[in-house]
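Q: what does this look like with nicotinamide-adenine-dinucleotide bound?
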Amino acid sequence: MKRYKIALIKGDGIGPEIIDEAVKVLDAVASCCDIDFSYEEALMGGCAYDITGDPLPQETIKISLNSDAVLFGAIGGEKWDNLPREKRPESGLLRFRKELGVYANLRPAVVYDELVNASSLKPEVVEGVDLMVVRELIGGIYFGEPKGRDENRGWNTMVYTREEIVRIAHEAFKIAMTRSKRVCSIDKANVLDVSQLWREVVTEVAKEYPEVELSHMYVDNAAMQLIRDPRQFDVMLTGNIFGDILSDEASMLSGSIGLLPSASVGAKIGVYEPIHGSAPDIAGQGIANPIATIASASMMLRYALGLSEAADKIDGAIKRALKEGYRTKDLAQYDAKEVCSTSEMGSIIANYAAK
Ligand code: NAD
């Protein structure tokens, strides 16, 4: 029997509800795949601040580093919005990613056949979309120095070193090897010096992956192409700020924010989490869609633990639940046969995944 230790960070708002459903599904696949998961809970976000005075207690980092992977819900809420910046839940999350050293953010955007009508784009444009944004997460303009402001000027610096570009490029090419073997690297090399280095280094790294087809695209064109013809993309490789924007744009292709998972990897321990926030407006009502978190658990099995068979079972179970017309409230208007609660959706997917 294979044994793994998972750190669970439920967080705030709907975080605990959606993580509970992901655990239900993990336990279901474990029972049929000869796997044993043990879980250790850790605090982060507003709930951590309330108890310890710190949105990221040291204990949470310790628990995470002692596990095989971290499954994360969501953090934040109005209650903590007026705290000083370093005490806010979001600061805890940024610090957490930096401390673990997870430099690559993987965000798949998949349009499920049954939900083509849920997209704001025409079904014929989004049908069959299956792309992955690989975004550099701990460098670029969000972290570059110098930065600052005075009364009349504000400034940030976009810096990438060769080493930072090399490691994120490898991540993108490795993922492309498991998919359709195409990488489109996004930059602004016509204007930015940092992008010229980015393009040069990505092109060098590509030589180590002769089977992968590399193309380059300016970020403004990429924003347009994602809406015009998203099926042209397989892996999109981006820096931090470009990926932040493009991955949100890509997420809308699928129709609901409640469907999309993500993984932050590159370090010894990866963090697997839905792309949405803590949705305080629906917390505690049992109507949150748990699919993004369940799909994040599937990414955790695939990328952190190498359990692709179990991950396939979960992905298949999600598809089957949607195909059979089960919908949480956010998707109720799209061919729902039955509208179910957060916990019912988790149980349906767990049941299918166990087969
Ligand atoms: P949000 O993603 O929490 O919610 C946006 C909208 O989408 C809301 O109407 C919400 O009800 C809906 N929604 C989100 N997840 C859903 C789900 N699983 N099922 C059904 N509907 C869902 O974004 P927001 O409202 O801008 O932010 C709320 C809080 O979350 C803020 O404090 C913000 O800072 C925080 N936040 C946290 C993370 C994170 O933990 N990684 C990410 C983004 C925002």
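The chain has two domains: 1-105+255-355, 120-132+139-254. The two ends are 18 Å apart (CA to CA).
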